[in-house]
Amino acid sequence: MAAASSDPLFLPDLPRVKQQTELNNLRALFLQLMRQGDAQPDSFPGSQPVSFERRHMNADQQVSLQRMGFYASEKTDGMRYMLLVLGERGAYAVDRRFEFIKLPAMHFPARGGGAPLDETLLDGELVLDAVRRGTEEGTIETRRSLRYLAYDACAVSGTWLMDKPLPLRLLALQREVKPGGSGGEHLYAYQDELRKVEHGNDGVIFTPILEPYVCGTRPSLLRDCAHTGFDTLEANMNSIDFQLRTEWRTESETGRKTPRFSIRYAERGSLSARRYDWLTLDGDQHKRFVADSKADRRVIECVWDPEHETITYPEGDTWDFPAARKGGWKYERMREDKELPNDIRTVRAVEQSAQDGVEMEELLRAMG
Q: Name one GO cellular component term (predicted).
């Protein structure tokens, strides 16, 4: 179970389903709506993208911007949740741990009135929007507001949609879930409109138009994290979730304990015993994790910063001869919604994506 958090995106004030029978029943219904009855009952079944690489612009590749049709939308900088709507039984946000968070009483009107929306399963992202409003004093104030952006539909009103192409899934989302509204996250052409969103974004998602919704890793769902600036390449937006590792040394003369931090990835569903790289934290972050008794169990999101100074050590367990290196992984935030870090395959793919360094002009040419 995730530790308590002050981050509003983790919905810390809402109750999680803890009773095992109730949790099992909700998971079974969730998988039934996805027609995934044979899936692992405690594993998150949502679709997962792969990192965009230069090869995805080549026409001779099976997955290529030149061979397939894609919708381009923002890669929202929020928290991934699937939304389960069960009519009078309520609604639940479902996180990457496949845990269910009971949402406050909400009204999801069904199309045409009558009973509320039931047996509906959406995929999307919870964001913290910065909303600017005028006040009675004639000034402008900015407030933070939680908003769920639905960008796909697995089932609506009990109708299975995963085998349908993306436009039909989005059409059902628009017509049935939010009558008269936009029905989901706005799908952008790859241009400046992306700058106008009221929340952060850290890349672009290319979703294949004609393919069905696929559970698990999806080779044709492309995540490009390198073009959020739109004018300049920002390869450091390629983020990876690592497991933090803390090592301690007791100085013989003073008895003082000194920590150092490293990061690890997952391999074949388990935490790797191998150190991937060293991690250098700033003052406040350093103090925070030194005082954290569960630091070794934390999954943290990091981004590569070519200017970040990283303290490294020679191979092995020696603490001697530390050296400063320009460039390294920089801590961004805790990932309390995850129990395992990214797999080594994801790490290598993100490395390749960053090394490819695809420029904006190249990407636009590939998109025609």
A: nucleus
Amino acid 297: pLDDT: 87
Q: Give the amino acid at 221.
A: L
Q: Write the CATH number of the domain with boundaries 239-356.
A: 2.40.50.140
Contact 28, 166 (CB under 8 A): no
Burial of 312 (0-12, 13-18, 19+ CB in 10 A): middle
Burial class, 244, CB count within 10 angstroms (exposed 0-12 / middle 13-18 / buried 19+) = buried
List every span in the chain annotated with CATH 3.30.470.30. Answer: 12-224
The sign of the torsion formed by the CA atoms of 294, 297, 300, 304 equals positive
Mean pLDDT rounded to a whole number for the chain: 80
pLDDT tens digits, 101-144? 999 988 787 777 777 899 999 999 898 877 666 666 666 677 77
52-96-287 Cα angle (round to 5): 90
Residue 176 gets which letter from DSSP?
A: I
Could you tell me which CATH number the domain at 12-224 has?
Answer: 3.30.470.30
Of 272, 254, 270, which is closest to residue 262 (Cα–Cα)? 272
CA distance 87 to 105: 10
- The backbone torsions φ and ψ at residue 346, rounded to the nearest 5 degrees and listed phi first, read -65, -40
- Identify which of 53, 57, 44 has the alpha carbon closest to the alpha carbon of residue 84: 44
Token code pair at residue 159: 């109708």
Q: What angle do CA 261, 267, 268 make, to 5 degrees?
A: 155
pTM score: 0.71
What residues does 125 pair with on adjacent strands? 80, 149
Average pLDDT over residues 153-161: 94
33-44 mean pLDDT: 82
